[in-house]
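Tokens as discussed.
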């Protein structure tokens, strides 16, 4: 029973992130909305996925940014904003670290 409850909680956390990854949010907000503690969320999420919650959010944002760069003509800056990065240079830095290319380089491929 414990395992299925953990799985349900990590699935509800992922579902919450899916609905909010493009926004600026805090762990406290997630905890409040899901009626769980911040510590519990961090622990079960890592146990269930092998990644921290913020690593997961960042990967989700980068996946969506890649999609937008390929499928739209939005400026790179706007793509960063749309997926939840408030700071353009930080977006470019994180994107390059995850993808191996800058957003502009990816768009040209």
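Sequence:
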């Amino acid at each position: 029973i414990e395992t299925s409850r953990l799985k349900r909680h990590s699935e509800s956390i992922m579902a919450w992130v899916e609905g909010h990854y493009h926004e600026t949010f805090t762990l406290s907000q997630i905890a409040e909305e899901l009626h769980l503690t911040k510590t519990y969320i961090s622990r079960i999420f890592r146990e269930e996925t092998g990644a921290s919650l913020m690593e997961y959010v960042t990967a989700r944002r980068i996946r969506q940014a890649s999609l937008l760069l390929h499928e739209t003509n939005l400026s790179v800056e706007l793509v960063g904003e749309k997926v939840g990065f408030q700071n353009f240079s930080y977006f470019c830095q994180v994107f390059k670290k995850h993808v191996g290319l800058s957003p502009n380089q990816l768009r040209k491929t």
